[in-house]
Amino acid sequence: MIQQDNSFSILLISCSNSLNGEGLNSDLQTCVQHQIAPRMVQTGIFYQDRKNNEGLFPLPPQIFAIQLEQALREGSINAFKMGVLYSKVFIKILIQTLARRDLSNIVIDPVLYSRKNFPLLEKNAYTLFFHKLIPMADMITPNVMEAEIMTGKKITNLSEAYKTAEHLYRITQCSVLIKGGHFDSPTSTDVLFDGQQFYTYESPRKTQPLIPGVGSMLSTAITCNLAKNMPHHQSVLQARKYIEKMASTGK
User: Which end of the chain has fewer CB within 10 Å, C or N?
Assistant: First the structure.
C-alpha cells in the first residue's frame, strides 16, 4: 500500500469524469502514486453517454467558492494545479483568491476541448483566462492544439514548437511546456522553455492505446514534483518517467 507523505500537499481544481478516469480521477491517482496529500475543488461533472454524446454540468459558483476557501483553510499548500475550469465566473473567483494569497508552484493545464471537441472553457471566458489568470501561474502545460489556439500560430514541427513556447513565455512570464503527444512523428516530444533555456524531452511513441487522461496526469505529476521543490526542468523529466512507467506497466 502506498503511503501519502502529508508533509506535502497540493490543491487540484478540475471536473470529475466517472466514465474513463480522466479529470480529477486521474489527478488523485497521480498524487497517491507520488505520495502527495491532495485536496480537491470540483468545477463540474463531465459525462459521456452510450451514444458518445458529451457534456459538462458545472457546479453553482457559490459551491465552487466554498470548496476553494475550505481547501485553502486546511493548511499550507505546496503546489496548485488547475485543469478544466469551464466558467468565467470560476476564473474570476480564482483570480480574486490568488491575488489575496501568497501561493507558489501554480500549474495551469489549459484544457479547452475534450478529445471529441466538446468545449471545456466557455468562449466568453477566454480573454480573462488567457490574459489575467494564466500570468498568475508558474508553469502552463498546453498541448499542441491548445498552444495553437492561445497564440494563433500553427505548430507542425519542433522548430515551431520552440518559437511558440518562447512566444507564450513572453506573454505570460511563466514556464511553458508544450506537450507534443499530438505530433505526427515516431517520437513523443515535449518542449519546455523556462525563460532562459529550452529543454526537449523525447521518448518512443507507444503503439498501444493512449491512457485516458494522460495529459492531465503528466501535468499533475509535474505539480507533485514542484511541491517537493524540484526545479521546473527536473519536474518535467521525472513526470515523463512516471508516465512512461504507467504506459508500460499499466499502473
Answer: N
